[in-house]
Amino acid sequence: MEYPASDWRKLQRVIDGLRTQKELAELALRKEGALADVVKKNQQRLEEIDKQLGEYTAELEQLRDSIKKHKQPLYYGDYLALDNLLASQLPQSDFVGKHAHDELLFIVTHQAYELWFKQILAELDSVQRRMAPSFVTGGSIGRIVHHLERVIQILRLLVQQIDVLETMTPLDFMDFRDFLFPASGFQSVQFRLIENRLGLDAKRRAVHDQRPYHAKLSCAHAQVVQQAETGGSLFTALEQWLERTPFLQSKSDNYDFWEWYRTAVKRMFDSDAEVITAGADEPSAQQKAQLEKLDETRASFLQMFDEPAFAEQIDKGLRRLSFKATKAALLIFIFQDEPIMQQPYRLLQCLIDIDEQMTAWRYKHAMMVQRMLGTKIGTGGSSGYWYLRDTVSRSRVFQDIANLASFLIPRSALPELPKPIQAAMGFTAEAEDKRDN
To answer: Quick one: pLDDT at residue 244?
Structure first.
């Protein structure tokens, strides 16, 4: 018989296809009321498939044995493609016959950035896949946290790489800077993909030359990053996951987390007001000032419980995370010590850490550019330091999560939860799932 091409991967796909056909044929045989001729036809087809499957499997084993016998031992340099990698540094100063020693450092550092960007994208892809299902298991949350913690460590390394680049002096940089125009780090496609995968709001991007951020990219690369804007982000996946969080409400236990927390907040502020005015028939000027400050804080807290006011803040761009997702995130913060909430809390902390490290990198990058260039324009035509400084404050993705610390109250001020909710959060054996979402 004729065999397919002697590529074991293609052969494996043929075998997988035959196995699928076999399963379908067996399924057809099991159907009740099947006609005799249909049964006979499927039996014959099943016998043919079994025969082909045996022949192809034997061929695959022979092919693998042959590969093992003739394959050369894997060599370190070949595995890492080092010949290609180490030949990829092409200093522009050498092309014009004006060798600049520090240009190699500049190239190696930026290539290292791009390699780490590739790894970050791989980790974020895995996180998004695991957060995509409508039900995310505890095991998946653990893996998600693992991937995010790796991203955090990579970002810390990227911040430290700037220290190496800063061993180059401004004059060292000027030896080759003019040869780089109009190339710029602004054109890093992978960095733009990271921003979009995380969920950077397009409206918050720092504006460069009154043009879209992808205007300086090639047409192909511009298309890639624009597609990433609509291809789903970690922010969106997080919001959807939070909105599915249990323990927000249980009708059977007469429990509503939001009302439960509102009551606790009110009780705390009322108690603080009593402490301020204790022992005084008439508040003093200092006490009145303290009460006014307390009322301002109380009003800020109460805004969290006003859904229309919350929606208005979202419309104004003051908030981004939905009302329901914010409630869920606050619940996770409050019950972070409960067994069922520990991994979700770590996940939220990882996102805050990623924002923090991205911000630290942007800030240190801006400071390095100022140190190297002062207020000169960048090689890509941006305003250099001023543009980069603007990105520091405008590029945080998970700021709503970090800001939840503003709305926490002491553990001692929290009322007791209903027993069934406590049991469910604590993984007790007698816990019954009475959660109504």
So the answer is: 92
